[in-house]
């Protein structure tokens, strides 16, 4: 399946629900991981590792620190995925 | 040419464990003021509620001596019976002579072989690996493996990433001959490409070469939390499982898991990744001891045995991981209940 924004966003939603235990409906491109979704820096590591596995993409540590919103993560994966 | 050396191999085990924690207990409330944090935030990120911090006049060797005296007594031995001391630490304030030889003087046995190892939070398990090989090859009979740290000397109380993590303490084991194999194969190695993730700098030479320069501060530990967390959970879990497999055990047949007490979130994630069942007792000494680097595994072992005495003589997977980045793990038979 091609990694479109829609596909990746759905995948990220599943991961964040699993890691942070929050309602999938509040997860959107403009939401901030820390402030809006209760994903702290360590939970973010879990999200990133799960996303790497799900989409077969490598997300370096310095990219992780730049990912403030869900959209930042989705766009990185779409741009760097196979 | 053929040289003479013993062909026989002598099985080894942990004969005893000894722990010493400095009496002063420091709650999160004493730390949060300088780093604009809260007790809740620290507990959520690390699981740490309190830690033990040594007083200014209590040295690393003071703590190590107290731990060693307990371990030697519980082994039913005297200091003279110890013929090698392996001292794992990153916080002894001298390059030479070693912490191990200062400990020998304190113990009143100045003739044993003695040396320090620098493998940070993996230091204790590196020491167990070496001690096992020394006893197996009959190079030594009874080896004291010490993990002791006074990390409060090297922690910046204003660093929001580390001020609440590191603490002080000393834990040790005596490893000696045994009828059966009591220490499984060691799985060890490094991820040195990630060496920068945990540092203790500047070096002595930077002080010497920049006299009077105030921006060259006292050496403190710095840590890239997310990088270390990711490595600790996702790289270490498969290594821990390899150590288990190497000893011929499975998660179902293991009795206890005593990982380096780095962070409770790392411990929980390791347990989850390794799919350890509820029947495995897991050490969480971090919650009341903080991260004491090389001391954390023997301290946690002592605490777990005090809490669950039925674990004496049972199997435990111990694994250390930290600055380097380096790691070492092995399955051990926990020491028997001391008779004295």
UniProtKB/TrEMBL annotation, chain A:
One of its GO terms (cellular component) is cytosol. GO terms for biological process: lipid A biosynthetic process. Keywords: Phosphopantetheine, Phosphoprotein. InterPro entries: ACP, ACP-like_sf, PP-bd_ACP. Residues 6-81 form the Carrier domain. SUPFAM superfamilies: ACP-like. The keyword Protein transport does not apply. One of its GO terms (molecular function) is acyl carrier activity. This is Unannotated protein.
UniProtKB/TrEMBL annotation, chain B:
One of its GO terms (biological process) is fatty acid biosynthetic process. Residues 244-333 form the Beta-ketoacyl-[acyl-carrier-protein] synthase III C-terminal domain. InterPro entries: ACP_syn_III_C, ACP_syn_III_N, FabH, Thiolase-like. Gene3D superfamilies: 3.40.47.10. It holds the Pfam family ACP_syn_III_C. SUPFAM superfamilies: Thiolase-like (SSF53901). Pathway: Lipid metabolism. Keywords: Acyltransferase, Cytoplasm, Fatty acid biosynthesis, Fatty acid metabolism, Lipid biosynthesis, Lipid metabolism, Transferase. Residues 115-190 form the Beta-ketoacyl-[acyl-carrier-protein] synthase III N-terminal domain. Coiled coil: none annotated. GO terms for molecular function: 3-oxoacyl-[acyl-carrier-protein] synthase activity. CDD domains: KAS_III (cd00830). Belongs to the thiolase-like superfamily. FabH family. This is Unannotated protein.
């Amino acid at each position: 399946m091609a990694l479109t924004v829609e596909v990746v966003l759905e995948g990220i939603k599943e991961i964040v629900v699993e890691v942070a235990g929050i309602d999938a409906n509040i997860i959107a491109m403009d939401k901030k991981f820390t402030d809006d979704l209760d994903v702290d820096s360590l939970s973010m590591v879990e999200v990133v590792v799960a996303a790497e596995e799900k989409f077969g993409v490598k997300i370096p540590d310095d990219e992780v620190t730049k990912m403030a919103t869900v959209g930042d993560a989705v766009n990185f994966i779409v741009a760097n995925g196979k | 040419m053929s040289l003479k050396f013993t062909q026989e191999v002598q099985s080894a085990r942990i004969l005893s464990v000894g722990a010493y924690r400095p009496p002063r207990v420091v709650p999160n409330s004493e730390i949060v003021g300088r780093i604009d944090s809260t007790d809740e935030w620290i507990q959520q990120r690390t699981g740490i509620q309190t830690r033990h911090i040594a007083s200014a006049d209590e040295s690393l060797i003071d703590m190590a001596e107290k731990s060693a005296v307990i371990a030697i007594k519980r082994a039913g031995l005297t200091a003279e019976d110890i013929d090698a001391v392996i001292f794992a630490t990153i916080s002894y304030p001298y390059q030479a002579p070693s912490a191990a030889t200062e400990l020998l003087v304190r113990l009143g046995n100045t003739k044993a072989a003695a040396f320090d190892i620098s493998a940070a939070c993996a230091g204790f398990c590196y020491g167990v690996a070496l001690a096992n090989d020394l006893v197996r090859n009959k190079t030594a009979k009874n080896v004291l493996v010490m993990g002791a740290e006074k990390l409060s000397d090297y922690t910046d109380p204003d660093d929001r990433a580390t001020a609440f993590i590191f603490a002080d303490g000393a834990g040790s084991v005596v490893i000696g001959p045994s009828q059966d194999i009591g220490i499984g194969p060691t799985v060890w190695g490094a991820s040195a490409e990630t060496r920068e993730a945990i540092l203790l700098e500047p070096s002595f030479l930077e002080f010497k070469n920049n006299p009077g320069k105030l921006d060259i501060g006292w050496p403190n530990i710095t840590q890239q939390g997310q990088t270390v967390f990711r490595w600790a959970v996702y790289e270490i879990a498969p290594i821990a499982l390899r150590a288990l497999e190497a000893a011929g055990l499975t998660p179902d047949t293991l009795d206890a898991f005593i990982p380096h007490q780095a962070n409770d979130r790392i411990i929980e994630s390791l347990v989850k990744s390794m799919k350890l069942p509820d029947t495995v007792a897991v050490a969480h000494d971090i919650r009341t001891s903080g991260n004491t680097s090389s001391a954390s595994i023997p301290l946690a072992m002592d605490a777990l045995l005090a809490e669950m005495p039925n674990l004496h003589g049972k199997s435990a997977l111990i694994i250390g991981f930290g600055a380097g980045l380096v790691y070492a793990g092995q399955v051990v038979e926990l020491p028997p209940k001391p008779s004295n």
